[in-house]
Design goal:
Layout lengths: L1 E10 L4 E12 L11 E13 L4 E14 L2 E14 L2
């Protein structure tokens, strides 16, 4: 899957922030999951981040990908949990 997104971030507190994404996504043909047609559409998501130390943070996010294909519309939703280390 390929995506082009704009991300906006806003702090809620000194070490907690939220972010939102909006953009486009495209998916190549995958017979096992989406049939034989390629799809393009919108992608968007929301998340929260927590800096629990000056060099480490955790994120929890929810993303949505809405594809339009020749055979109909497909929706893909995902949640993610991540750790980031800055050096």
């Amino acid at each position: 899957m390929q995506a082009g997104n704009a991300t906006l971030r806003a702090p809620l507190a000194e070490d907690v922030g939220i972010y939102g994404r909006f953009g486009t996504a495209s998916r190549a043909a995958s017979p096992a999951r989406f049939g034989t047609a390629e799809g393009t559409g919108l992608s968007y998501g929301l998340g929260v981040s927590w800096d629990f130390s000056p060099r480490a943070s955790a994120t929890l996010g929810w993303d949505s990908y809405d594809f339009r294909t020749l055979t109909g519309e497909r929706e893909l939703r995902a949640t993610s949990l991540g750790l980031q280390w800055r050096y």
